[in-house]
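User: Can you fold this complex?
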Amino acid sequence: MYIHNTQIRVRYGETDKMGYVYYGNYTEYYEVGRVEALRSVGLEYKSLEDKKGIMMPVIRLSVDYIRPAYYDDLLTIITKIVRLPDQEINFETEIFNEKNKLINKAKVDLCCVDMQTMKRVTTPPFIISVLKPYFG
Amino acid sequence: MYIHNTQIRVRYGETDKMGYVYYGNYTEYYEVGRVEALRSVGLEYKSLEDKKGIMMPVIRLSVDYIRPAYYDDLLTIITKIVRLPDQEINFETEIFNEKNKLINKAKVDLCCVDMQTMKRVTTPPFIISVLKPYFG
Amino acid sequence: MYIHNTQIRVRYGETDKMGYVYYGNYTEYYEVGRVEALRSVGLEYKSLEDKKGIMMPVIRLSVDYIRPAYYDDLLTIITKIVRLPDQEINFETEIFNEKNKLINKAKVDLCCVDMQTMKRVTTPPFIISVLKPYFG
Amino acid sequence: MYIHNTQIRVRYGETDKMGYVYYGNYTEYYEVGRVEALRSVGLEYKSLEDKKGIMMPVIRLSVDYIRPAYYDDLLTIITKIVRLPDQEINFETEIFNEKNKLINKAKVDLCCVDMQTMKRVTTPPFIISVLKPYFG
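Assistant: Here's the predicted assembly.
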């Protein structure tokens, strides 16, 4: 398993009239978590698209909204790659607030798409080999 | 069960550099589907907040991204209230594109919160009684 | 001058903790206004990109926020093309609420970019000729 | 004049199908710039609302889009408070990309609203006195 932490401060525009972060805006937090987790092992998602012609759309998402997040909260995003990617890449995210309370849990599953053919492909070997040391 | 249909046209700002609707932006489509489903049985969500002091935050979400949605697509949002609300209100949404292909399926579970006490409450009787005729 | 009206209902996710529509989210309303104005004269913006290889990025924006817009408001978006396009295409938008009060005024200026060369070009003749009848 | 710098990395969800940051999403960057500029002089915007009952809606915005911003760009946001606040608070923002090219310029004018009465008020003295040392 690979675990990575990053922090995000809630922006005003991410809240809604309830005063909470809008339920859809957490998806950007998961995305930042994923991208920074990949960057920390040397995989730049931007380069995957630009240089390798691989993009990774989301195919499945599940979220538990446990406590609200509020404007200006400094959130800790814990991103886990829970298994060695194969047909899919599976991320799990936990978000904690400044009082260290778990406020949100999510699973995000992505696949790889070849941007030439726009067909789904298995995770490319260069991604597997970068992640392999963290699994077993 | 209560079923309601509404339509949404994909906005430019809802797409991302992949050319698809960003995975987080579907949440606004589910929300429009929910709100219009409630309006169609005479429940105006805005009035729930303003006049009844009840708000309905999302507590759980799960999504299957089946096919991409593209800019300017006219999407059909089918929103189902699958059981009579009790501790939660459970919505299921299916989204179809103009070729009538299923592109997205989601479950969104909400609870009721008393805006005075900010405590979770069971679904108020006036909501139950409006929906009851559709269930059995 | 060409004038076109369309309507938009404010979504929950477009509000912020102030209870108003977030100041940045009006940009999607202007965009819908522009796209529907163009569609109403037979110009589909999507086709401009897909078939003509022309995209229209925004180069300048100015906004007066006169009154707030609230959740669930049904807004009327009045979009004007104020002069025959040349180096730029200039839109002016006025937004009215259900009480017919002017709440927002904006000017949005766009240019045309050739998607092959990614260079700025003057407005293509086929756009000019569609709009010409409304000017002069 | 007071000048403050902060940095933002462009998120995937902030881009659109053009591959650029959507023109409306810069508003969140200006907002982060403003909030961090105020924090750096000891004014926490969140506390203004929560403790002082003052909120600051945007009343006017103007933007020049000079060059596009792209996914994953690390942008430098330079925020200036250009005059001592009085009836309004006037911010000017310049955004630079990693090559130190100016990509975006904006002016954002805000006013103060008393959250009890929901009436516009002049900028409170405690804000003026914090900012005064930087002007004259």
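Chain A has three helices and eight strands. Helices of chain A lie at 26-40, 45-50, 125-131.
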